[in-house]
């Protein structure tokens, strides 16, 4: 019995052994592969160390740190593998596949940096050997980067530096695409000082909500970049130095935390906007060079004051547009020095010598100008320094530093002859003047457009001459001809409703409309009256002459048969009074009914009075009203009853006395 039982037990042990070996075999093989990979990586690292033995100790330490980090990651991977091996075998393959699918991308993945010079700058910053591959983990260790090589042409791949805090790009580079910076949300300090930066390719840094310092000196940006900068609400320090295209600070007043602004050697004209900055207390705006991007101004020759006797020409400074203005509207004067280093003036591109210039705060007088020189003057350019030293202008309250000193002004003028005037007339069809004539002045070649004004009671009928064109050396005339607007004449139709005695049954209805408008009238219904006829047109058109329509009605007769009263107690005088009252009441009723368009219905048991003789009316009046005879009988019966009771009382009293 025991031998038989040992054989199956032995076989079960063998089966368990085979199953255990089958489970451990892949694990043992996988561990061997892992160690083989580790050894290969170690050999590569040692080889790299041998090649880079000339590097500094600091680089070596940085590399050692990197190796330790890699070894730690590998150990963690091995531990994860071992832990997976100890998982109970009851887990099916589906569960394992699902676990693998949610595993995050390893930070050891290689990051491609397209520009080799950018890659080398990143490797150098991280202390990695030249030629090393950059991983995502390496890029995330990058917190600051300085780029100054003129040969860098691309920033592609830099978007992986998710923890980059500051970037410094200086000098002339070939970079035209700055969009990789748009993904770096950790930026706080950004310096982009390169001529390849324009307002068009300036990156959208709205994701970098923590930027506090931004430097954009010596670039190719202009005013169009300012709204993009205004989105950086955490910005406290801004540098815009040496950008001639920046001529205004207006959009930047939306920055709630901006405290310091440097905009030296730009082209800013108006500093009154400084009053609208909520936190600004530091402004450096030395040396503004205004007018560099302004278009020439065209003026007439008459704007220049010429002295025929002295043969001198005076150019007033009041002609000069777009001058620098301080926060308090103070306009600094131009230099009064005629030296070439302070004042430049040319006629038709030829610089005038300093000895021909006499300058005051009001303008420049040029001597020795002949009539032919004036006639042939087509343009002149004025360029001068501002007489704006420190201390000569006010400083806003609350500012710790404020400077708008020095600076230059430049403007060019085109000189043309004054055109002959354009005379504008306003008259009606008959040629009568409706408004005083006007003269429009302009320069030869300057365009004009004259609009016809509105004149009360008139509308434009015709335009003689060309209301649009250009001024020339010939006089021009434009005449606007108006015609009177026809007045709207209104007509009236009066609708009357009367009886045969011409007594109104209601107030007349007056209808008023513009002459020529159709009208209609209506026949109304009056209780107790029958329509007889209408006088006038019931429909037609309103005319200037008042029209009348009269509807005539006949009063209905009373069809109730008169009853003669037998009551002789009513005297004739009473009958006459009642008849008069009834007639008056009827008249009042008719008068009241005439105040509405339709008479209200009378009670159903009422009948309209019927015309008859006075005796019939008196007889009708003597007829008792409803319930009158019954009331009289009760009165008689009551009197008899009282008399009977009184009689019985007296009779009883007499009997008692006996």
UniProtKB/TrEMBL annotation:
Alphabetically ordered keywords of this record: Leucine-rich repeat, Membrane, Repeat, Signal, Transmembrane, Transmembrane helix
Stored PANTHER family: LEUCINE-RICH REPEAT AND IQ DOMAIN-CONTAINING PROTEIN 1-RELATED, LEUCINE-RICH REPEAT-CONTAINING PROTEIN 9
Name this polypeptide is given: LPXTG-domain-containing protein cell wall anchor domain
TM region positions: 632-651
Signal peptide as annotated in the record: 1-36
Residue ranges with Polar residues bias: 588-618
Region feature (Disordered): 42-98, 557-622
Organism: Enterococcus moraviensis ATCC BAA-383
Domain Internalin K: 304-415
InterPro entries: InlK_D2 (IPR054360), LRR_dom_sf (IPR032675), MucBP_dom (IPR009459), SDS22/Internalin_LRR (IPR050836)
Domain spans labelled MucBP: 421-483, 492-554
Species lineage: Bacteria, Bacillati, Bacillota, Bacilli, Lactobacillales
Composition skew (Low complexity), residue ranges: 42-87, 561-587
